[in-house]
Design a protein that fits this description.
The chain has 13 helices and 13 strands. It has 383 residues and is of the alpha/beta class. It is found in: Membrane.
Length: 383
């Protein structure tokens, strides 16, 4: 009797186990790699959807080449959701969005439409991953997806790889994933998105798009991104270039291998001061005139490095204050630690942010010269 009861319970348990009722075979799916949103006619949203073509995965890329490893489907509807429902009509397959790498928004659309509303469906739906890169494209975003990828199989993958490398190694762009954009746009905060443009017939993800009240107001050039990443404590790796003291035409380069920053807001009456503290570790990369024979020589070089870092941060701050774009989060800091004062200044925070004073305290350490020679390798004094 006990065995019958046990078998009966096992049978009931088997009925509760998940099966393959919702299985999806790969030949039935269209894997979306990238999406571009542009301003369409009569206020519609023009969407270009890049879908991976597995049968040609080993052939050369190119938007219109029948041997390409992707195809681009263009649709134009009033909403993003309508455009998404339209794509399978051209493919004969159900679209799968979990492999999407990039969402690009054309500059014209970004200036006219609230970006948070454009991305609302991607925030809500369960298929798009929250680490998808969100970029603002100079000109027409859909045209970038028609370009031939240089190394990768699809343009979406190529854009993602370029953006990742430039953020991690070149400090010329920022990290702007779907999740991070959602955090920034919450409560009408100012935001930063990655920016893509065309250079020498190809595309380059450099610079950052400044978003205010959900819309694009301008672009922060790539040479200001380094200072921005320092302030945000997101600096990964990069170079500091300084001029030789006795010859301004000669430059030397120091690699920043580690950088950690933090800042604190001090409020005295109506004056707001942000005190930035930063710890830096560097490695000698390219010397042309400096010789580090004494501690005094090293101190002089460190002083030059710190002055250059301060200059880069101040240049970025001046641009942000001119734009009245608090993308570094000073207002959020005041709201968190000084809520009473924030309630009095939040209505005119744009003007208040433009008057904020910044001070810097940088501590730099040189951890390696790369060789045993603390001077130019081919100098007359090198042994």
């Amino acid at each position: 009797m006990k065995k019958l009861i046990q078998f009966g319970l096992l049978g009931v348990l088997l009925l509760t186990l998940p099966g393959c009722w919702n299985k999806r075979e790969l030949p039935e799916l269209g894997l979306v790699m990238a999406v571009a949103l542009d301003q369409g006619k009569k206020g519609q949203i023009e969407m270009t959807t890049q879908v991976f073509r597995p049968s040609a995965s080993g052939s050369e890329g190119g938007g219109g080449d029948p041997k390409s490893s992707f195809i681009n489907v263009k649709t134009s509807k009033d909403t993003v959701f309508q455009n998404i429902r339209e794509v399978p009509l051209h493919l004969g397959r159900r679209t799968q969005w979990s492999h999407m790498r990039v969402i690009m928004i054309g500059e014209s659309l970004a200036r006219k439409t609230d970006i948070g509303k454009l991305l609302d469906l991607f925030f809500r739906d369960h298929e798009p991953r929250h680490n998808v890169s969100v970029l603002i494209a100079k000109g027409h975003a859909g045209e970038y997806l028609a370009k031939k990828p240089i190394v990768e199989q699809t343009t979406g993958q190529q854009l993602m790889r370029i953006k990742q490398y430039l953020f991690q190694k070149n400090t010329s762009t920022i990290k702007s994933t779907l999740l991070e954009v959602a955090k920034q746009l919450k409560d009408d905060n100012d935001a930063l998105l990655g920016y893509v443009n065309e250079e020498n017939g190809s595309f380059a993800a450099s610079g950052a798009a400044l978003i205010k009240k959900g819309k694009l107001i301008g672009v922060l050039p790539s040479d200001h991104i380094k200072g921005l990443l320092m302030l945000l404590n997101n600096y990964q790796n990069g170079l500091v270039v300084i001029s030789c003291p006795n010859n301004k035409k000669e430059n030397e380069a120091i690699e920043i291998v580690s950088l950690h920053s933090r800042w604190k807001v001090n409020m005295v009456d109506d004056k707001i001061t942000v005190r930035v503290k930063m710890e830096v570790e560097g490695a000698l990369g390219e010397l042309r005139c400096t010789e580090l024979k004494t501690m005094k020589d090293e101190a002089k070089l460190i002083d030059q490095i710190e002055k250059e870092l301060t200059k880069e941060m101040m240049t970025t701050i001046q641009v942000l204050q001119d734009r009245k774009a608090d993308v570094i989060g000073v207002g959020n800091h005041i709201y968190r630690y000084h809520p009473k004062q924030w309630s009095k200044m939040k209505n005119n925070w744009d003007e208040r942010f433009a008057q904020v004073t910044f001070t810097f305290h940088i501590k730099t350490k040189l951890i390696t010269s790369g060789t045993s020679l603390p001077e130019p390798v081919l100098s007359e004094n090198a042994q």
